[in-house]
Amino acid sequence: MSTNIRTRLADNVYFNEIQVDRFKTMRLTAIALLPLEKETASDFALLTQVLSRSCKEYPDFTALSKKLSSLYGASLSAGVRKIGESLALTFSIAGIDDRYALKGDVVSSELSNLLLKVIFEPKLIDGVFDCSEVEQERRQLIDLADSEFNDKRVYANARLIENMCKNEAYGIKRYGSRESILKCTPESLKMAWERMLEGASFEVFFVGGASSQGIQEIFKEKFSLIERKPEALNTEIIRKAENVNKVTENMDIAQAKVLMGFRTDCCKDDEDAFAMRLMNVILGSGTRSKFFLNIREKMSLCYYCFSRFNRFKGILTVESGVESSNAQRTVEAVLGELEEVKKGNFTEEDVRLAKLSVASDFLSITDTVTGNEEWYVSQLTDPQFLTVKEITEKLNAVTKDEIIAAAKKLTLDTIYILSGEGEENAD
Amino acid sequence: MQIKEYKSEKLREKYFEIEHSSGLRIFVLPKEGYRSTYAIIGTPFGSINTEFNLKEGKVRVPDGIAHYLEHKLFESEDGDAFMKYSETGANANAYTSFDKTCYLFSCTEQFEKSLSILLELVTSPYFTEETVAKEQGIIGQEIKMYEDSPEWRVLFNLLGGMYHSHPVKVDIAGSVESIAEITPESLYTCYNSYYSLNNMALSVVGNVTIEDVLKVCDKYLKKQESVEVESLFPEEPYEIKEKYVEQIFPVAVPIFNMGFKLKADRLHSEEELAHLDILLFMLASSTSPMYRELMDKGLINSTFSYEMFEGGGYSAILFSGESRDPEKVAEIVCKYIDKAKAEGFDEKDFEDSQKATYGDALSSLNSVETIANMMEDFYFSKRKVFDYYDAIGNASMDKAKLILNEIDTDNCTLSVVKGE
Q: What is the number of other CB atoms lying within 10 angstroms of the CB of residue B232?
């Protein structure tokens, strides 16, 4: 893997230069981390949209898009995601490496500068964001919030988290609620923008073959003009579920979605976090997992059934799509497979192959531009960034007993079933 | 065995095309500095190939059989291929599209062993009454998962509205009823024709050499008799079947697909494809006046997209997205197409679109997966990869105008899925 040279540019502002020359494109991403809060999530989500559609120099999205297309169809994107109970505001620009420009054009430095302009030099009218642009982006964000309902897998997943974490910040959606999106104003966005520049923890990632020295200097200069007051970032970890919360909803759909959420009593900074990651592989991730081999292949209950471990929040979620009449049977099957792992009914060979599969995935990640960035994004808020080699070594040190111990820590918190209409009594 | 080298100075890439003695066509593109390798083997047998001519005569097979066959090939007499792959750490998968079925893996070590598993998988069919029956439940749930996907529904409703009889309008996985008709015999019939090595192609990209690939192919692939198979498609009129199709479904934001049906007597060449890509960018990307008007009127959001959709006997340009007023969107899209046909384009816009199309195509050469998939696609469509890139650089406005004239705004279907 290419080395990451991490440089501190200001208080809680870091620049990560990942030098690779095997790609035909470069990418620059700035991530601003802020606490996830009910009152401000929508402002931040809308802010990323508004910032990325124009700037002082290219004052509307047609002008900005035309600039990007003249730079060989470069792409500028922005959005928000949850990392534990932090909100990560992400701004990225990607485009071709100078070596591949058709007429000897130099594009990479222009792209980097464009991203800086988007973040630091927005188009403001009377000191606030343009009202009509805010309205345009608000409409789109509401579409995004509403369209979550369109995809039943996404919807069911969101409902599981909403129910399971209703009293935690994690229960807040990354873009807030429809109601809070409606409350955003050009003024509240301006405040959010200022709060981001002053209070967010920033990680900037450059992946490419050119030097990033110039761009680092400009970032540094920009931040030197800001009085930085980085805010604390925390995630509440609920170690154990007290009782099982069961929620069933009905809808006119062909297939029931069965979701289960467990508390793992284990999160990213815990010693057994690596054991939990491997436990997840053996239980329900991939085609050698217990879920795939038994619930899909042996029982023919479903097309998909898998588990996912969220190390930031300390939860493990299970997802499957089955006949409504088989929903209860699926819940029992999932718990049955977990019981098998707890009893140690898997082999040393299973453990070795789980490690092999994870290690192979890690190495493949570095063969894509975004993968090089994503490797570190997946470690945001960790005490330090580790390399592929370092994490692989930690995983390889995990023993079968540690995996069993990890499985034993799981407690079931919530079962969420989205059932085909009228079949709620079929169980 | 014949080995041919293709090189592009501009793209700094080269690949090899091999006519293997077994009959298999092989493409290898070594990627310097990469850790992973991606291999994919495919056959031009997809959901549309339900009727074909063999030496013995005409055959008709149930809808969804190509996809069913894909699932079943993963099983052999000595176990499941996924289990074998797990021993090499490779990540394996397969997919069936309208016009082909592909099997693939990516790995960072034990490439030769993984490739041998892939070759064994496609050369050793094993179907019994029992194993075929077992898959009904799994695929039945896959079909139902897609039934709940509004994106999938809106697309197939569109295809049903555009096509009178071409099988592209049938769901790729078939239906619960059609797959119930599949038997070991019908699977063998398909397998013995389309999976003959002379009808297949293997593409390998990444941390690999031509020798690595040939070593395994030489060992595992025996020379086979060539099998001639001709896919048959029913007569399809040029005109669309219906202008508007609608389905009520639990969605909060209505979604739409609109399709301009084109003549499909042949596939577009590399040069035509390059011009189509530039043309569509100019017409409908976020830089275009069309996009601007749709946005300003609050009719679309960033999910708005477009694509060229073509294969054996079908060809169309599709637009899709979410909108509270899809009919208005369709009207505006048509207005701008007719306007471009009447007035032509601006030279600067054309140049920028050309650059953007080139940049976009170039970035796909970063990914071993994308390159290998592209090599399969291009081979089955009788196109050459580097010729497409050259054609973008050499594109002309006049040729783009010729392509634009293929679009007839009266020959267009709009499909909408909306809530009650």
A: 14
The C-alpha atoms of residue A47 and residue A139 are separated, in whole angstroms, by 13
Query: What are residue B53's phi and psi, to 5 degrees?
Result: -100, 125
Name the region of B132 (left: φ>0; alpha: ψ -120 to 50; beta: rest). Answer: alpha
DSSP string across A134-173: HHHHHHHHHHHHHHTTTSHHHHHHHHHHHHHTTTSGGGS-
User: Residue B163 pLDDT > 70, yes or no?
Assistant: yes
Domain count across chain B: 2
> Is B355 within 8 Å of A70 when comparing Cβ atoms?
yes
Query: What are B54's two structure tokens?
Result: 């063999």
Residue B369 CA to residue B213 CA, distance in Å, equals 17
Same domain, B19 and B157: yes
| Virtual torsion, Cα A173, A178, A183, A185, nearest 10 deg | 80
Residue B208 sits in which domain range?
2-231
CB of A158 within 8 Å of a chain B CB? The answer is no
Of B125, B100, B122, the closest CA to residue B49 belongs to: B100
Q: Mutate which of A295, A304, A360, A372 to disrupt the B interface (most B C-beta within 10 Å)?
A: A360
Residues B203 and B249 in one domain: no
Chain A residue whose CA is closest to B34:
A367
**What distance in Å separates the CA atoms of residue B321 and residue A40, rounded to the nearest whole number?**
29
Question: Is-contact B27 B203, C-beta < 8 A?
Answer: yes
**pLDDT number for residue A422:** 57
- Domain with residue B394: its CATH number is 3.30.830.10
Set of chain A residues whose Cβ sits within 8 Å of the Cβ of B292: 62
Q: A287, B134: Cβ pair inside 8 Å?
A: no
Angle at which helix B184-194 crosses helix B65-73, to 10 degrees, equals 90
The ipTM of this complex is: 0.89
Domains of chain A: 4-224 (3.30.830.10), 245-420 (3.30.830.10)
Distance of CA B147 to the CA centre of its chain: 21
Question: Roughly what angle, to the nearest 10 degrees, separates helices B270-284 and B385-393?
Answer: 50
- How many residue pairs from chains A and B have C-beta atoms closer than 8 A? 182
CA distance A123 to A193: 12
Catalytic residues of B: 70
Q: Distances from the Cα of B56 to the Cαs of B65, B189, B193, B224, B232, in angstroms?
A: 20, 11, 11, 18, 15
Length of chain A: 427
Cβ distance of B91 and A357 shorter than 8 Å = yes
Closest-CA residue of A relative to B152 is A151
Euclidean distance between CA atoms B80 and B105, whole angstroms: 15
Alpha-carbon Rg for chain A, nearest whole angstrom, is 23
- Tens digits of residue pLDDT in B236-279: 999 999 999 999 999 999 999 999 999 999 999 999 999 999 99
A residues 105-144 closer than 8 Å to B (CB): 136, 139-140, 143-144
Residue A146 touches chain B, beta carbons under 8 Å: yes
Domain check: are B310 and B364 in the same one? yes
For residue B155, give both structure tokens: 């697309």
Residues of A in contact with B145 (CB under 8 A): 153, 255, 303-304, 321
- Full-model pTM: 0.92
Task: Report the pLDDT value the prediction gives residue B31, as an integer from 0 to 100.
Answer: 96
